[in-house]
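Aggregate trends can hide what the representation actually does to any particular protein. The sequence in question and its structure tokens are set out directly beneath this paragraph.
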Amino acid sequence: MAKYTLMKTEGRAKRAQFETVHGTIQTPVFMNVGTVGAIKGAVSTMDLKDIGTQVELSNTYHLHVRTGDKLIKEFGGLHKFMVWDRPILTDSGGFQVFSLAGLRKIKEEGVYFQSHIDGHKIFMGPEESMQIQSNLGSTIAMAFDECPSSVASREYVQKSVDRTTRWLERCKKEMARLNSLPDTVNKEQLLFGINQGAIYEDIRIAHADAISKMDLDGYAVGGLAVGETHEQMYHILDEVVPHLPQGKPTYLMGVGTPANILEGVARGIDFFDCVYPSRNGRHGHVYTNHGKMNLFNAKYEMDPRPIEEGCQCPACQHYSRAYIRHLMKAKEMLGMRLCVLHNLYFYNHMMEEIRDALDAGNFAEYKEMRLAGFAEGKINGRV
């Protein structure tokens, strides 16, 4: 089974390592999002190793509707299918209950979907989500939940959270059954529960207390960065994280910007994921120590410098801003690929610096320096 070792704390910030069947994860960590088993932008699993990726994240719902989890199981699971021997986390399909609101009906037994691809009917409940994730054989499976809207009524959110708790009990039971079967791809598959409650702190806290008693392998805070302000998100983390077990990994789902990550680490978060680095990279928006840069800006047309001086990513080691801008303007896939590689390297490298700062006991100063750099870049128009 997995082993979580808390190595150091600074305030609420945690520096830990999480030993799994697919390798040890050093936390805090950013998980690189490969929705359908690949990072968008023509980034291979060999590239992921080169840029320091520890964990890859894939999507249960999307792999189920396109290609299919049963086919992937025939290949020996997602690790073998995509040729990746490090940890993989699969989300549960629960977020699609939120994002595909126009295509689904929620019942006690689960959720009835229409496929966003061809409209065919799909049913997914806790057991189905666990079965799909078991077929994929991921290192960490997420419990099936509903992510209520941040503007949903208190009454709706309470009913939703109560149902999510009942679903979590079903997920735990089904996971134990699946892990005991002889033909299961990964009999050491781990289960993380998800805290919900929109921006109602008392509902969040009560839910955190309830799921903490279930002794799961890890705990996530879901349903943030879906419309509320950053201040509301930080407030919820301040209130909720202390109610989750400190001796288990804590995961903030779908967050976020470099500043969000620094603030999340300070509040005790171990795991992060977000589509920003790859999505923004595909549109020529790249991250630097002075904030985000838009390479389509005319001022980079003749700029011979790399995206960021001193950066050791594959793009910055070889290519100029001017050349990458030219590729993006010409709609050459290489431009998109280089921007995505740079952004993922930037995120992975920042997490490494965060871990080093926590090891050295100076995370607070590191955080302030980083946030000041982002702000200064905006003020002076450096990016």
